Amino acid sequence: MSNIKKVLGLSMAVLAVAFVFSFSAPKAEAAATVCTATATGLWSAATTWDAVCNGSDAAIPDADDTIVINSGVVVTVDAGNPSVAGITINSAAAANGLIISTGQTLTDTGSLAYVANAGTADQTITIAGTGALSVATTSTIPAPTNTGSSIITITGAGTFTATGTLALTGGATAGNVTVAVGAGTLAAGGAVNITGAAGPGVAQITVSTGAMTTVGAATLAGSATTAKLTFTGAGTRTLASLTDTLGDVDLTGTTGITGGLTYTAGTFDINAGTTTVGGATTIAASKTLVIASGATGNFAAVTGTGSAAITNAGTLSTAALTLGAGGALTNSGTSTSSGTITLGAAATVTNSGTMTASGTFGTGAGVVVNTGTLNLAGATTNALNVTTLTASTSGIVDYNLAAAQTIMTGAYYDLKLTGGSSAVKTIAATSSVAHDLTIATATLASLTNGGASTAAFMILGTNDSNPGTWGGTSSAASFTNSTFFSTGPTGTIDVDHEHGSSTVTHHSGGGGNSSSSSSSSSTTTTPTDTTTTTTDAGCVNGNAFSATTGKKCTSTTTTTTATVAPGCENGHIFSSVDGKKCAVIASTTTTTTTTTSTTGFGSAVTKLGSKGTACLAWQTFFNNKANAGLVLDGNCGPKTMAAAKAWQASAGLVADGLLGPKSIAKALSM
User: Which single residue of 86, 170, 325, 543 has CA 20 to 30 Å from 530?
Assistant: First the structure.
C-alpha cells in the first residue's frame, strides 16, 4: 500500500511540474522567413510565394519576413496593407517588381534593396493611385550593368516615404536608375544621393506635378549629364539642402530649399515657377546659375567664387550678393538686392532689364554696364562704387534713396536724382549726362565746389530747363536756383539743349524757378512756319487727270503759322522774359483745289493713230473708269479706240472713237 502511495505521489508531482511548465513557458514564435516570389500573382495568394514561405505560419509574408522578387515575377499588393522586414528586387532577365494597388500601403520596417540589374528587362516598383510604400531604413538602387533599368514610379497621387538614405547610382551601360513622381509625393527622411557615372546610364529623380520633401541633404555627384534632379510641373518641393557637385538640376514649379545650396559643377536651371533658398548659396568658378524668363529665384545670400555667373531673364531677389574676381551677373529681367552687392576685381554686372539695389553696391572694384534701369536705393556714400561704370549709350541710373547720397563720378545716359524728403544728392566731381539729367521735386543737387558737370538736357521737377550753366545761389552759373540746388556749393552743370531744339544755344536768361536776371523782349512774334504744296506725281503740265492713276488732279496747299509769347523765340521751352513755360499757339490752313484745265486730254481730237500725252491721258482714264486694261504707251491703236467707243456709248455719247470737246467735257464731269 505504501508503494502505491509513493507511485501516486510521484505521479502527482510530475503532473504538477508539467502543469506549471505548461502555463509558465511562452509559446515559441514562428521564425522569420525569407519569402521568395516565384510566380506572378497577388500578394494575398499563397501560390505567388515559394514553399519556404508557404510553410510559415501564414503561408504569405508577414511582418517579420523579408521578401525577394525573382526575375520575371510581378507581385500585386492587393489587400491587407501588409508589412515586411525587408524588400529585395532581383536582377531582371525578364521584367519583375511590385505593384502597390490604390488604397494599399506596403510598410517595410527594414531596407529596400535593388540587386544591380544585369538583365535586359526592367526592375520596377509601381505605386498606383493612392497607394503607398514606406521604407524605414535605406533605399538603395545601384547601377545596372546591362540595358535593363531600375525604377520606382508613382503613377497617381500615391506616396513613397524613404525614411533613411535614398541612394541612386547611374552606370556605364544603357540602363537607367529612376525615381519618377507623377502627382504623388516623394518624402525623404534622410539624405538623398544621386550619383552619375560615365554613362550612358542616368541616375535621376523626376517630379512632374507632385511633391518632394527632404529632411536630410540632397546631393548630385559624378556627372553633369547622368546625375539629374528635374522638377517639371507646378507642384511644391521642399528640400533641406541641395548640393550639386556634378549633376543637372532643372526646376519648375515651387521649390523651397530651407538650408543652403551648393553648386559646384554641372548645370542649375530654374526654368519656371519660384525657387526659394533660405540658406547660403555658393556657386563655384565657371558655373552659371540660370533663371529663365517667367521664373523666380529668391536667395538669402549668394556667393560666386571666381568666374561664377548668374544669368537672370526672370525675377531674381537676393539679400546679399558677392561675385568673385571675374564673376558676372547678367540681368535682362528684374533683379532686386536688399543687402550689400560686393564685386571682385573684374567682376561685371550687366543690366538691360530693371535692377534695384537697396544696399551698398560695390566696394571700389568691378564693372557695371547699364542699358536698362538701375535703381540705387541703398547706401548714402557707396550707393554705386565700382571701378568702371559704362552707362552713357542708353539706360537710366536713378539714385532714389529718400536720404542723402553721393553720386558716382562717371558718364551717364539718363541720370535721375530722386527720393524727395529734401534728400541731397552730391555730385562730387565732374560727371557727364548724354541725355536727360532729372532732379525730382523735393530733391536737391549739391554741386561740389569746383565741379563742372555737363548734361544734354535737364528736367527740374517736371519742367524742362533752358540751355546754359546752372547751379546754386553761391555759384557763378547763368541760372541760379535754390529749389533744386543746394545754396552753398559753387559747382555748376552746363546744359546744352532744350527738348524740342536741336541747336546748342548757350545764353543768359530765365529758367524754370530761376532767380537770375535776363534780357527780355517786349514783342510777340507771329512767323509763318511752313507753306507746303503737294500734287500727284502724275499731275504735271496742268493735266486734269493723273498720268499714273487716272484720278482727277488736285493741289493741296497747307499754311501753318505759329504765335509765340515774348522770350519764347528760337524754340525755347521756357520764356527768357518771365521764366514761364512757353505756350505755342499754332494755326493751320489747308486749301484743296481741283485742276480744271483740259491740258491733259489736249485741245485736238484724239482718234485712231493719235500718239502722245493726250492719248496716254485717255488710256489712263479708260483704265481707271472702265477697267479697260490698256497698256499705257501713249499709242491710240484699235484696242484703245475700242475702249473709247465702249465708254462713249456708256456715257450717252456718239460712239465714233473721236475724242473731241464733248468727250473731254464728259470725262471732266466724271
Answer: 543
> Phi first, then psi: what are they for 414, rounded to 5°?
-110, 125
Query: How much is the pLDDT for 149?
Result: 95
CA distance 587 to 585: 7
Contacts of 48 by beta carbon, 8 Å cutoff, 6+ apart: 37, 38, 39, 40, 41, 42, 60, 73, 75
The β-bridge relationship of strands 296-304 and 150-154 is unpaired
| pTM to 2 decimal places | 0.70
Q: Extract the C-alpha cell encoding 571.
A: 524754340
Q: Which residues are within 8 A (CB) of 471 and not within 5 positions of it... i.e. 6 or more apart? A: 447, 477, 479, 480, 481, 485, 489, 490, 491, 492, 493
Closest alpha carbon to 324 in 350, 339, 355, 302: 302
Provide the grid cell at 252.
519648375
Residue 626 DSSP class: H
Which regions in the chain score pLDDT beneath 50?
A: 1-2, 4-30, 502-532, 576-579, 595-598
What was the pLDDT predicted at 133?
98
What's CA 218's distance to the chain center, in Å?
Answer: 27
* Residue 217 identity (one-letter amino acid): A
What pLDDT sits at residue 517? Answer: 33
Residues in the chain: 670
Dist CA 659 CA 166 (whole Å): 100
CA nearest neighbour of 309 among 291, 295, 294: 291
Instruction: Using DSSP bridges, classify how beta strands 463-464 and 452-460 pair: parallel, antiparallel or unpaired.
Output: antiparallel
- DSSP 8-state symbol, 569: G
Helix (H, G, I), strand (E, B) or coil at 82: coil
CB 520 within 8 A of CB 566: yes
Instruction: Mention every residue, 6+ apart, whose C-beta is less than 8 A from residue 469.
Output: 475, 476, 477, 478, 479, 492, 493, 494, 495, 506
State whether the Cα torsion 536-538-541-543 is positive or negative: negative
b/e burial code for range 369-392 (CB count within 10 A of at least 16 → b): bbbbbbbbbbbeebbbbbeebbbb
pLDDT for position 55:
77
User: What pLDDT, on the 0 to 100 scale, is given for residue 543?
Assistant: 56
Q: Which pLDDT score is estimated for 513?
A: 41
